[in-house]
Amino acid sequence: MTENTQRNREAEVNLLAAAREAQWSAAAFMGPNAVKVVSPAKVNLLLSIGARRPDGYHDVDTIMHALALHDTVYLCVQPASEDEVAQLAEQAAAGRVDIALGGPAGNLAVTIDLADRTGTDLSVPAADNLAFKAADALARALGREGAEIVQLRIEKHIPAEGGLGGGSSNAAAVLVGLASQWGVSSDDARVVATAQALGADVAFFLQGGCAQLDGAGEVLRRTLEPSRKAVVLVKPAGGVSTAAAYRAFDETPVPVSAALLQAAADATSADGVPLANNLAFAAESLLPELAGVRAWLADQVGAENVLLCGSGSATFAVAESFAEASRIATAALSRGWWARPTSFSGLRAAVVPGR
Known about the structure:
38% of the residues lie in helices and 28% in strands. The chain is of the alpha+beta class. The strands form 2 sheets. Strands 1, 2, 3, 4, 5, 6, 7, 9 and 13 form a 9-stranded mixed β-sheet that branches. The protein has a 4-stranded antiparallel β-sheet with strand order 10-11-8-12. α8 crosses α10. It starts with a helix and ends with a strand.
């Protein structure tokens, strides 16, 4: 795909999104075949990257914690005729980028409406969106061969390229929402396996709260008592490619100390976990502004309370109160950074009751 073609596709996504935004109504969307799903962000209290494995992934020991900051996913499943799915397939083939086709027999048409609340460009063709890949993979795992149309509206509050897991959380929300509509428990082995295959963060969001995972980051080891402390998130304009961060890490790997790993293993609650991320140095080498964000936040709350979110480019700081987190966020905004006050949370990807 040429650069001009990509720009044209992104512009078309934006125009379609603007048109749908003007017409969209929650009251009209929600019905007997629709659900609303909360889709939280996360941070890594501990991220210990180990050796590169033969499969190309790395051994990972991590403790993730959900945040109150969240996206909202609206999902509607409608039985359809083969002709209706075929018509949508023709529109996708003709260049309509908000539609993608999947399912075990090409029988699942998915439309995605992205509503941005982050102030950044989140235009992603439906076929490239992890939310679609989740719907496609679960339909295949469950062997659903009947013609169906899945409508998704994703209201985005979690910024992209922040290490906050927004795309993975959306994928988990789609799995949970579809499971509820297809008569399957969200902890069904096929749902869990689908989440694990989609990515480590997706698997975490089925659990939520605070949890320690290993393997490549997708295998649940244990849960910890969640924290309720306030958090401030700060992100510069630039992003960090996760793949590039791992390549930089492989060039100069820096392990997390045995003492910190033992302290994390001994902790029974999130508040007892010492903050550590051995991918941070690699990320800062790719985006030096991250070091400035880290130093500035350390001046606000102390270095021991500040950590890069995954591979970046957001950094989080634990604050004494929500008022303090809000003050820091306001100061960060004045420096030209994206910033939000929030808090740790016991949230997971879950259907909102009482629709």
